[in-house]
Amino acid sequence: MLFTICKNAFAQAEVLDSLKLTLKTAKQDSVKLKTLVALAEAAPEEEWKNYVYQIKEVTGAKLKGKNSTNKLYLKYQGVYLNYIGYIHQIEGNLDSAIIYFNKCLKVRESINEKDEVSQTLFNLGVVYDNLSKTDQALAFYNRSLKVAESNNNKTGIANALNAIGLDYYMQANTGKALEYYYKSLKIAEEIQNYEVLINVLLNIGAVHLNLGDYDKTNEIYLRSLQYEKKINDLIGMAMTYNSLGQVSRMKNNDSVAIFYFNEALRLNEITGNRHGMAISIGNLGAVFQTQKKYSEALALFQKGLAINKEIKSKPGIGSTLYNIGTIYSRQKKYAIALPYFEESMDISNELKIPDMIKNAALGLTAAYTNLGEPGKALAAKELYILMRDSINNQENKKVSIRSQLNYEYEKKAVADSIKVSEEKKITQLKIKQEEKQRYFLYGGLLLTLVFAIFMFNRFKITQKQKNIIDQQKTLVEEQKQVAEEKQKEVMASIRYAKRIQQSLLPTEKYIERVLKNKY
């Protein structure tokens, strides 16, 4: 890891030197502006803003007269305005941040840069979230999502879905939060965007932690850790190890917690993250204190106190002083414990943190009581009770919210289960209906086929009968014709015979005349 860090540091320095050389020799504005953006992204904290203001100088000088609609300069004007909005945001000037992000949005919309428009809308959502204006933040996130979807910008889609999920979670709408988180997670996995993946997984883990589902939380944090390892995010890994250690402590698994806290400490030492080191050391000391290994715990707390003083972390100093006082108190060394509790109380009062005041008051109560100062002990106890009740009210509210979260989550799970069951029934019913329809269709086709065959056969029979009838008719006609011919011949014969007979026999008049003459 040390080799990798050194190698990356040298590579980063080489990149910066190369970019600076390119900027120095660049003649075209397009090359100069592109290089300035690269430098703003790669430069250290104390330098990057200078490159942002150089982008402003170039674009401001060019966006005049005939160049006022030049797409190149408008593009980089949008980049500059977005950077300035971000600078105001991190400095806490949120109203100014909104002004610059809106200016940026107007420029980017004018040149139809959909991906950049989606990003700026997302940035506005973040600012409104910082102002605790969740409804307005959601509106911007949804607009960002819509634009990203229209341009199939999957990174933009995943980021917007994750942000929407976080806002629903802040509104105690666990079901909606998880719905959007898992949509974001699916897309982030598809495009292998590890940064988005890690953020979404940590958000999902926070939901399950608040629901008291430690096993699920542990599983999600471990998955996040794998992605952090892939991109070699050592600081992120250290934070996740600390989170895993806390979950293990909640599960009363101290040995696993110690392993995770040691891993976090090792990575923080490698990266030089002093704040992270103090947290990891404090976590380890707390585990040993619970195990009544007071000498090991005391050594760790003393080491953590020194680091907190170096980095001037007052919350860290106050908490560690209380922890050291507690060790001496448990060893019945009340005179040694007392100054640690008193100093812790001074810092706690300065910071006005109820939980720290409560702890310091509890330590002082025990110390004053055992050192024979009942008046001070009573005052400390009353302060302790006051802070305890105040915190309990807040805790009760948290428990109520947690119960509501759990109820909503379970209700959503039941609703989803019922929905799936109903959908399954509907699907089965549709399948049965489709089967019946198919049977009716097949039956209808079969009947149609049978009827067609029957009609074809009837047609063939009818055709055959017609042919027979035609043949018979022809035969009858022929026979009739023959009969008529024969009849004609007979009649002709009769007429011929009659003529012969008439020619041979005497006529009636002749016979009558003969008879008259005779008689």
Could you name the key traits of this structure?
mainly alpha
Care to describe what's here?
By secondary structure, the chain is mainly alpha-helical. It has a domain at 18-112. Helix content is 88%, strand content 0%. The chain is built from 20 helices and no strands. Helix 2 packs antiparallel against helix 3 (48-62). The longest helix has 131 residues, at 374-504. The chain is globular and about 125 Å long. The model is unreliable at 1-10, 396-421 and 496-511 (pLDDT under 50).
For the report, how would you describe the main beta sheet? none
Order of helices and strands: HHHHHHHHHHHHHHHHHHHH
Total beta strand runs: 0
What class would the helix/strand composition place it in?
A: mainly alpha
The shape is globular
Compute the number of helices. 20
Strand content: under 5%
Helix content: over 70%
Low-confidence stretches: 1-10, 396-421, 496-511
Give a short synopsis of this structure.
With 519 residues, the chain is mainly alpha-helical. The protein contains 20 helices and no strands.
List the helices and strands and how they pair.
Blueprint (H helix, E strand, L loop, with lengths): L1 H24 L3 H14 L5 H15 L8 H20 L3 H17 L3 H17 L3 H17 L3 H17 L3 H18 L2 H17 L3 H17 L3 H17 L3 H18 L2 H17 L3 H17 L3 H17 L3 H18 L2 H17 L3 H131 L3 H11 L1
Helix pairs in contact: 1-2, 2-3, 3-4, 4-5, 5-6, 6-7, 6-8, 7-8, 8-9, 8-10, 9-10, 10-11, 11-12, 12-13, 12-14, 13-14, 14-15, 14-16, 15-16, 16-17, 16-18, 17-18, 18-19
